[in-house]
## 1
Amino acid sequence: MLPVVVAGSTRRYAAAAIAVLVRPSDATNGDTHAWPLGDLAGTDCVVLNGSDATTVLDAARTAHEGDVWESAGATYDVAFRPLLPDERTCADVRRP
């Protein structure tokens, strides 16, 4: 098995997709950002790739820990997680 980190490597991992982990929030201590894609209601995770991933990550560059995201009038805590090469779905991210 190859090592996970190659000593001396400067190459960064470029994820092909990201998981967006979502939960409702009533926090008021951070800034509020407009969610740039569809409605987050009713989901706790979504996998994005291509232009959708780029759109969300571009919006996330201005966010800080404690900020919330607004979608369809509700606010959410959102966490971004790059998918590893063997991961494809939210179920893969939630492995025990």
## 2
Amino acid sequence: MMGRALKSTDVPVTKGTSGILVISEDEASRGTPKNCIRCGECVDVCPMGLEPKEIGIYVEANRAEDTEQFGIFECFECGSCAYVCPAKRPLVQFVRLAKMKAKRA
């Protein structure tokens, strides 16, 4: 589920396109993000065994540079954590922000 979400099919498929995932508008709708309920769904689906919930909590607390302990550089941003999150948290965006800030520190 990596890649960019597109709202239109008016985009060319090139040799760099490895796949296309088509989902309904209801599945694609993220809704309003809520606070983390620490359910662990994101941890269960992470193929790297990371803790996306902790990364998100640290980023929201303005401690993104402290997330290396949770393996942010091991994350390949597949999006599985954000997809299953019942609180609709933007976990992939939190990871990207954490990586950027950790590289600066």
## 3
Amino acid sequence: MADIRPFRGWRYSPSRIPDLSQVITQPYDKISKDLQQTYLARHPNSFVHLILPAAAEPYSYSNTTCRQWAAQGILVRDTQPAIYVLHQEFEVGGQRKTRKSFVAAIRADEFEKGTVLPHERTLSKPKADRLNLLRATRMDYEQIFMLYSDPEGIVEQALTPVGEPALVATDDYGVVQKVWPVTDPGKLTAVRRALSDKVMLIADGHHRYETALNFRQEMEKAGTVADNAALRFKSTAFVNIADPGLVILPTHRLLYGLGEVKWDDVLARIAKLFETKPIKDSAVEAALSDRGRQGQLSRAGTEHVFALHTGKDKTWLLRLTDKAAVGRLVKERSTDFLDLDVVILHTLLIEHVFGIKPGNIEDHVAYERKPSETLAKVDSSKYQAALLLNPTRADQVQKVAAHGERMPQKSTDFYPKFVSGLVSMDIGDNERV
């Protein structure tokens, strides 16, 4: 059973920080060095000081800074446990959308229990970093992103906002965040009951969820941990998988460290599995989409389409023609898993054609969301090649997770991200939820 609870959040004081847009940040793993410096220069109380400090001892610095801000009244704590309704208004593909969610605490159960399911593999370095931060601060600063199924909209009805939002902020990408704390016991109970029998799916934040598990297990080894201890829970932003504002973007792959590459040989190997056709660099986005593929390649075969870019005016559209090849190379996986574009890309192109083993991914593969930036990074010779793909669908994520299978890392890019700095949860030794 999913155990979802309200909590007494820490947030910026409106009287001390009247413009919340000046202090919120993107999630820690989306903050580049340049963006970190931008945040540091933007406001002395930027949330980046807590989640990604520019300090010699970052973990102790974060803890000290958080305690100082609380003592100074820059950060204040809500007096009642709440579920925080969060609406994000944004534009994508020329359309205005609103993604509706709510922030609450969920009991961090092991995946084997089947209450919370992952869909991606994780890397070890980010988990070690976040665990050190948790140890030092005992603060759960950032939410992860969880999907749930509620086709009848029971939860949304219970959490329909009333009045003006308590918090409003606009992030670096023009996404407007609106927050309403809900403390009514009847509404909180209705939400908990509606979701108690649901299976939750991690959409984004696998590293942070597994870090919460690791920290709880570490604390249990050190002594008795109360059943309602806050450290047994993870603050989470929940979105209905049927929400019309749910958007997934593709994450393209950039290749480097390949040594000297003979591209004619590479294309010959690709041609054994894919139909290939040169296209203009400017046509990549349209060619990948169903709308733009007409006339680019024959309609025979499958609809798994990718693009390979190796330099300016050197782009090929690839359509998979030997779908059985994936099953020959990947054993004991479901049909849903084998049908994923990201699995086809990793198995047939990254691993089979380029010879990059899964254990060496971090040494040869980087990631980029924007197609134009992806091509530009290859054209500048920073990377040797790019592989572009279409986004994974939400229903595919749900099906694969239900099989207990995990996709390659960076298989999904849910947009927009949940910003950091709206509300945080205290997980100190004496905290209860």
## 4
Amino acid sequence: MSDAATTPRLQPRYRRVLLKLSGESLAGEGDYGISPSMVGQLAGEIRDAHRLGTELALVVGGGNIFRGLKAADMGMDRATGDYMGMLATVLNSLAVQDSLEKLDVPTRVLSALEIREVAEPYIRRRATRHLEKGRVVIFAAGTGNPFFTTDTAASLRAVEIGADVIMKATRVDGVYDADPEKVAGARRFESLTHFEVLERGLRVMDTTAISLCMENEMPIIVFDVTRPGNIVRAIAGEAIGTIVGGEGRADAR
């Protein structure tokens, strides 16, 4: 968990942020399910970021529980598999909400699929109102449509709520020209344009998500969430990870 004592010394660079977390980040050391200790650790990081005064929204993936595309490869109907994946994101969102509220962080889950017993329905104006009131908003169930990833949902929601930036939390410290966990000597980019990501076929987000960000001039910061305090550092504007968008050209090193 990050050191909350450092938080007051930092000032937020961004007024409103959408943080994209993978479902796998909630599994901890395991390959499946939800690790309460890992969720608690992430909740502590999010709490510290919230204390900066930035309006904070989250999109959480569901890959730690179910992947619709993988199920389709095994013979399941793709649309059915994707709906099951959306429900997995609801489970993850509720787990994150529970951990945040135990830390006294006001949180609302808004679902693109109507499950009124556990989450509010997604309404854009309601979401922005929650953010204005200082609540962390978690967008669940993707876009509510099959064939779209949670990356695309993150891009869509970020544009809809007028976020200043998407922060994509990963296990590596930015975007590389090859998988750094598999390729020795892979080079990290300091910055990229959206077009360069598409042109080079870099696995930042899927092409639909990147295209939507490019069309709406939405920057993306890709950073290592496993390092304590990095969410706060990213929101404070420290140069960590890789920034996609803006004026920067490709600069791998």
